[in-house]
């Protein structure tokens, strides 16, 4: 019956469904906490765009390149200290 209802879902057994439901519950709990839970002072819901929004999102953001550059700088400083 599951293959008739969801032919491309590739779910064959009850444990797969239970696992997926647990995952969805955890994801929902995370979004709920962002909007309504503790420490949600900087999160909100934009009705027009239908998405979670935050204030000052880029204030402390780091890209992967920033992190790699920081690690490389620490590595170079360590290498220079060893050689001296």
Automatic annotation (TrEMBL):
PANTHER family: MYB/SANT-LIKE DNA-BINDING DOMAIN PROTEIN-RELATED (PTHR46250), MYB_SANT-LIKE DOMAIN-CONTAINING PROTEIN (PTHR46250:SF17). InterPro entries: Myb/SANT-like_dom. Residues 11-57 form the Myb/SANT-like domain. Pfam families: Myb_DNA-bind_3. This is Myb/SANT-like domain-containing protein.
């Amino acid at each position: 019956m599951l293959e008739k209802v969801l032919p491309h879902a590739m779910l064959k057994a009850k444990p797969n469904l239970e696992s997926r439901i647990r995952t969805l519950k955890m994801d929902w709990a995370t979004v709920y906490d962002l909007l309504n839970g503790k420490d949600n002072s900087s999160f909100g819901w934009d009705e027009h765009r239908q998405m979670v929004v935050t204030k000052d999102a880029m204030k402390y953001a780091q890209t992967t390149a920033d992190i790699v550059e920081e690690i490389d700088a620490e590595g170079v400083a360590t290498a220079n200290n060893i050689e001296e």
